[in-house]
Amino acid sequence: MSQFNDFKLDSQLKTALSIPDNILEESNINTGYNIQNNLWEVIVKYNNDLTIIEEEMGVSIEILSSNYAIITLKKEQIFLLTLYREIEYIEQPRSLYIVLDTAKNSSCNEQVQLPPNNLTGEGTLVAIIDSGINYTHRDFRNEDGTTRIDYIWDQTLQDGNPPEGFSSGTLYTREEINNALLSQNPFSIVKTNDDIGHGTAVAGIACGNGLSSNKKYTGVSPKSDIIVVKLGEKGRESFARNTEIMRAIKFVLDRAIELNRPIAINISFGTNDGSHSGGSLFETYDNAIIGHN
Fold first, then answer.
1. Tell me: the pLDDT tens digits for 57-93?
2. Domains, the chain
3. Cα separation of 62 and 73, whole Å?
């Protein structure tokens, strides 16, 4: 397309859009491109209202905050998007990779759990945004066997019950998890699980209560309640995208407001993509929405 605002596109996205589709499919910069439906997912920073863009272009828009959104659209529509004054910047999603280099002992937090502080996380929430969780594990259950988990949003399951305001995934509530734990086959009721174990391990460090080890091994916040988001997309066995994390952050913050409790968010992912300046839309969104809340 000959006319578009080149300055509104991040450099990696410009490169990706210049590559023929048949080559892009095999490249390592196709993050955000869905080969099956030939659609792109992009992050945008915007101002004012995006209604006119949604109506005129017929694109899918997910509002994350007053300045950030995720838009799903065709390749040629990305160029058209740059012409709208409401759009300040457009960024390609980045792949994120599992990272867990340090654990509880390295944080030197054990002293705060002892008298006179006795800080256990009681009355707070811990959000685990990761590969899921084994919700049947004793460390994430109370003494009476009931769950400590308020919500699990599995982004990879498409059973028709996504959280309000989101269009994909399946949401499970505390009540549903407790019902599953009472059954002979809990995973037939609450079908989410942690296939690789990373999220469960992270949750154990962050908020395990040690019931499985007779309290020998406890997490940082053993009496907090838990919210879990399993990252991903149905049918995709690759790394998580930062757009999925952006959705997850909005979800867990909305739930914390709903429950009127403070929340700590654990995201054990990282990436080497980008400028490392803290100025990407993903990073500025995180700072803005977490700082605001």
1. 999 999 999 999 999 999 999 999 999 999 999 999 9
2. 6-93 (3.30.70.80), 98-274 (3.40.50.200)
3. 12
Residue for token digits 């500025």? Answer: 284
- Two tokens at 281? 């839309």
Q: d(Cα 166, Cα 169) in Å, to the nearest integer?
A: 8
Rounded to whole angstroms, the Cα distance separating 136 from 141 reads: 8
Tally of residues, the chain: 293
Global pTM reads 0.80
Q: What is the pLDDT of residues 246-258, one digit of tens each?
A: 999 999 999 999 9
With b for 16 or more beta-carbon neighbours within 10 A and e for fewer, the 261-281 pattern comes to eebbbbbbbebebbeeeeebb
The Cβ of residue 181 has, within 10 Å, a number of other Cβ atoms equal to: 16
DSSP string over 147-213: B-EEEEEETT--SS-PPTT-SSSEEEEHHHHHHHHTSS-GGGTS----SSSHHHHHHHHHH---GGG
